Amino acid sequence: MPRRTDDGGRTVLGRVPTRTRRPTTSAVALGLMALGVGAFVVLLPSVSDACQPATTPVSAHAEAALDPGSRVLIVGDSYTTGRGSSDGNHGWAQMISENESWRSTIDGIPGSGYVNRAATDSVQNTYLPRIESHASLDPDLVLVQGSQNDWTVSTRELRKVVTATLRQAEEQWPDALVVAIGPSAPAPLATATTNISDAVGAGARAAGVPYVDAVDAQWFTEFNSRSYVAADGEHLDDAGYRYLARRIAASLHDLTETTAECQPS
User: Fold this and answer.
1) Which residues on neighbouring strands pair with residue 260, listed in sequence order?
2) Where along the chain do its domains lie?
């Protein structure tokens, strides 16, 4: 299936077909008067009257959740810890928190995931118990990142665990905006995580949670990954994490956009 380019796709509006020009209202009225027939003039609403910006529940929620000073919880894997960066602990999560002026609690464990237990093989390393361990927090925004380590289970099982994990976050913090961020590895790993990303996206939709899909949007391609990959070939370097932080921030702020609600003609 073709996927969007690195900068995302644009919707191209087709050309409006030319129509035969109709008589004006005044001309029609004069014609009817000449025939001795009374007529009513029907005023149609203008486009501005029919289509009004509509604030969706997600956009209104996101406006407040993304404000500077917001309390944010970020749960993820080695990308959240910043592995591959020059100091080994300054990745996208730290960068986006600084750029957005958030008060963040960053919980990253390398090798972990929704089902992957990381190096110590402890179930406590998976995302669900870690989310539960932060129950005392009162976040405005919860970002759950990753899953590229979850290649040991079927996509069906992964989807179920993702749904349960994200629902727990929503139930635990009903006033917070919960967002899932999928795998975001550079090429060639980006292609290898397609099925995982699809499973996480399906789980997020089942939980009613917005999903940031870096794989589908092709944030990392064979061409640009050369500029962003760390020496180990699996993580990002400083430039890569800066790029990832910008892309995630842009996706989050997209949630604040309103849409036009048009009444049927």
Assistant:
1) 53
2) 25-56, 57-259
The C-alpha atoms of residue 17 and residue 13 are separated, in whole angstroms, by 12
Please provide the size of the chain in residues.
265
Contacts 24+ apart (CB under 8 A), 236-240: 236/79, 236/84, 236/85, 236/91, 236/92, 236/186, 237/84, 237/85, 237/86, 238/85, 238/86, 238/90, 240/84, 240/186
Considering the entire predicted model, what is its pTM?
0.77
Distance CA 99, CA 62 (A): 17
How far CA 158 is from CA of 120, 127, 131, 161, in Å, comes to: 20, 12, 17, 5
Superfamily of domain 57-259: SGNH hydrolase (3.40.50.1110)
Task: Please measure the distance between the N-terminal and C-terminal CA atoms of the chain and give it in whole angstroms.
Answer: 36
Q: What is the pLDDT of residues 137-177, one digit of tens each?
A: 999 999 999 999 999 999 999 999 999 999 999 999 999 99
Name the amino acid, one letter, at 49.
D
The tens digit of pLDDT for each residue in 31-49 reads 433 444 333 333 333 333 4
